[in-house]
Design a protein that fits this description.
This protein is of the alpha/beta class and about 400 residues long. The chain is built from 14 helices and 17 strands. It has two domains: about 130 residues, Aspartate Aminotransferase, domain 1; about 250 residues, Type I PLP-dependent aspartate aminotransferase-like (Major domain) (Aspartate Aminotransferase, domain 2), CATH 3.40.640. α3 crosses α10. The longest helix is centred in the N-terminal third of the chain and has 21 residues. The two termini are about 30 Å apart.
């Protein structure tokens, strides 16, 4: 059932780090294949959060007493850790947010409102999550701009030639995801950035799925913005971040007003704080930040390449076995994929299939996965999505296959 490699990737040991995996669902061991929505948390993350509340609980940046100093040091250490993890040039290029969605909204509400005017255009792709569609729609509606859409083929790959043709003198921004949460497509983001920069256009990358599935080097990508969430990478919910190039963050107005984001306040005038604090109004999620840092430590200790190799093996095995089954249609067959499989079981509605699969203790996602436009592209209401993480096993995939056979039997 478990895999041990000479790199030390010991699945049995890893799974013991995740308390939630030890339980049963509907009388069967829990099989958790909803990692693209949120990942489970290891004891190292849970303990880091508990330890903060036991030993350091205090507000940050605002006190000289011992607890505040300790909390501030722990908090800022994680900012440096994230900068190092994604190879940002400076730690002050990392802004803490509630996650990818808020990071995108922050850029749309600050850089966007300052730089996008009536008649301008923003380029996104047909496989974006709603979080990378709606904020730009709202901005466009407010200022009178428009969205231009990079088309994708039936494999789920972007048409880069069509993308090149979308640029004109009115283009102001490109916003695309690193990896599709629905199809698993790993987009050629470096090439996408290069094409945009050839047209002197900045790029925002939705990295919600990018950070969990491999190494990210923002200096190599040369993107202006990279957005991410902690809960996708085995950290807590409600915490994430925005990487922004120093020059861009400096020029952007504040996102929200309040404490922390100011240097001085009078009734006549407010002087705003330096970056990144200019964008971090109010008491931050200190415990979440510390938990996020522990999650990065955890995956780095396992080795990003080891995790990727394991997840790729799971995806290959699952894909091979599913393709042997009658009536299974895999939606999205990009040549470069992360460990996400969207499928249809005959003409059975995904919700009905998911309900039966749950009886086997298997957690899969059903529906449109917050990507309705790509579902419209395929002409389907949704899919059954299985997404694999660092703790999943081939035996668990076999349980999923049994559950799918039961779905076919019941609705056949």
């Amino acid at each position: 059932m478990y895999q041990t490699t000479n790199t030390g990737y010991n699945l049995e040991k890893i799974r013991k780090d995740f308390p939630i995996l030890q339980q049963e669902v509907n009388g069967s061991p829990l099989v958790y294949f909803d990692n693209a929505a949120t990942t489970q948390k290891p004891l190292q993350v849970i303990n880091a959060i508990t330890d903060y509340y036991h030993r350091e609980n205090s507000n940050v940046h605002r006190g000289v007493h011992r607890l505040s100093v300790m909390a501030t040091e722990s908090f800022e250490n994680v900012r440096q850790k994230i900068a190092q993890h994604i190879n940002a040039r400076y730690s002050h290029e990392i802004v803490f947010t509630r996650g990818t969605t808020e990071s995108i909204n922050l850029v749309a509400s600050t850089w966007g409102k300052k730089n996008v005017k009536k008649g301008d255009q923003i380029i996104i792709s047909a496989i974006e999550h709603h979080s990378n569609i709606v904020p730009w729609q709202m901005l466009c509606e407010e200022v009178g701009a428009r969205l231009r859409i990079i088309p994708v083929d039936d494999a789920g790959e972007m048409d880069l030639e069509a993308y090149r043709d979308l640029f004109n003198e009115k283009t102001r921004l490109v916003a695309v995801n690193h990896i599709s949460n629905t199809l698993g497509t790993i987009n050629p983001v470096k090439e996408i950035v290069e094409i945009a920069h050839d047209n002197d256009i900045p790029v925002l990358i939705d990295g919600a799925q990018g950070l969990p599935h491999g190494s990210v080097d923002v200096q190599d990508l040369h993107c202006e913005f990279y957005c991410f969430s902690g809960h996708k990478v085995y950290g807590p919910t409600g915490i994430g971040g925005l990487y922004g190039k120093e020059k861009f963050l400096e020029e952007m107005p504040p996102y929200q007003g309040g404490g922390e984001m100011i240097k001085s306040v009078t009734f006549e005038k407010t002087d705003y704080n330096d970056i990144p604090y200019k964008f971090e109004a109010g008491t931050p999620n200190v415990a979440g930040v510390i938990g996020f840092g522990a999650a990065l430590d955890y995956i780095n200790n396992l080795g990003l390449e080891n995790i990727k190799k394991h997840e790729d093996e799971l995806m290959h095995y699952a894909t091979t076995e599913l393709e042997k089954m009658d009536g299974i249609t895999i939606i999205g067959k990009a040549r470069n994929k992360a460990s996400v499989i969207s499928l249809l079981i005959g003409d059975i509605h995904p919700y009905d299939a998911g309900t039966i699969i749950d009886h086997f203790g298997v957690a899969v996602r059903t529906g449109n996965h917050c990507t309705q436009p790509i579902m419209d592209h395929y002409g389907i209401p949704g899919t059954v999505r299985a997404s694999f993480g660092l703790y999943n096993t081939k035996t668990e995939i076999e349980t999923l296959l049994k559950a799918i056979n039961k779905v076919k039997e019941m609705f056949g």
